[in-house]
């Protein structure tokens, strides 16, 4: 899949589920539950035990059915290992210019983390495809995205932190191109209790919220 196709899929769906499971088996169960809910994207963070090998297994088994990316990537060496394992996109909580450069050279979409306007612009000018605004909730949530987008409308932003079903529409209305969603969607307790359908239903609900919010924003314009 080409870089532009990966980016289109991420922005079209508008949701990037962030998996911080405690084991590879948990992460795999989450992947299947989210896919069943119509969200064929998954960000496997480096905090998951055996994360790189899990990315390899998921990439091999799910193929083009699910877009597998790597999260919490904070150095170029880890980024290289993730792409070699099959990661289709790289996400970071921080801004590392070497990670951006490596992804550019490999034609892999990269979403570095930034918070201040200076960091956001630096990331964009360095070649970020989407800038992850993190931790967005701690800075005021959707209001902060709106404040950033006012002077920087050309920069695609993906808020992470503070995104819930209740706030998702606000983030989209504020100008977010996609939403990084953690525990509110990736409910590990549901997996441990043998209730993956809770995650599947949540994925469907998120997809519908994003669809409606975009439709309403389009009508408003």
Q: Layout of SSEs?
A:
Layout (H helix, E strand, L loop, with lengths): L2 H11 L1 E5 L4 H13 L4 E5 L5 H12 L4 E5 L4 H10 L4 E2 L5 H10 L3 E2 L1 E2 L2 H10 L4 E3 L8 H8 L7 E3 L8 H7 L4 E3 L6 H5 L4 H24 L1
Parallel strand pairs: 1-2, 1-9, 2-3, 4-5, 6-7, 7-8
Overall SS class: alpha/beta
> In terms of quaternary structure, what is this?
single chain
Total number of helical segments? 10
Following the backbone from N to C, one meets helices and strands in this order, namely: HEHEHEHEHEEHEHEHEHH
Q: Any idea what the radius of gyration is?
A: 16 Å
Largest sheet, described in full?
4 strands, parallel
Kindly estimate the percentage of residues that lie in beta strands according to DSSP.
5-15%
Contiguous low-pLDDT stretches (5 residues minimum) are none
Summarize the structure in short:
By secondary structure, the protein is α/β, with parallel strands linked by helices. Helix content is 50%, strand content 14%. The strands form 3 sheets. The chain has a 4-stranded parallel β-sheet. It has a 3-stranded parallel β-sheet with strand order 6-7-8, with helices on one face.
Textual characterization of the structure:
By secondary structure, the chain is of the alpha/beta class. 50% of the residues lie in helices and 14% in strands. The protein is built from ten helices and nine strands. It has helices spanning 3-13, 24-36, 51-62, 76-85, 97-106, 117-126, 142-149, 168-174, 188-192, 197-220, and strands spanning 15-19, 41-45, 67-71, 90-91, 110-111, 113-114, 131-133, 157-159, 179-181. The strands form three sheets. It has a four-stranded parallel β-sheet with strand order 3-2-1-9. α2 (24-36) links the parallel β1 (15-19) and β2. α4 packs parallel to α5 and α7 (142-149) packs parallel to α8. It is globular and about 45 Å long. The N and C termini lie far apart (33 Å). The mean pLDDT is 95.
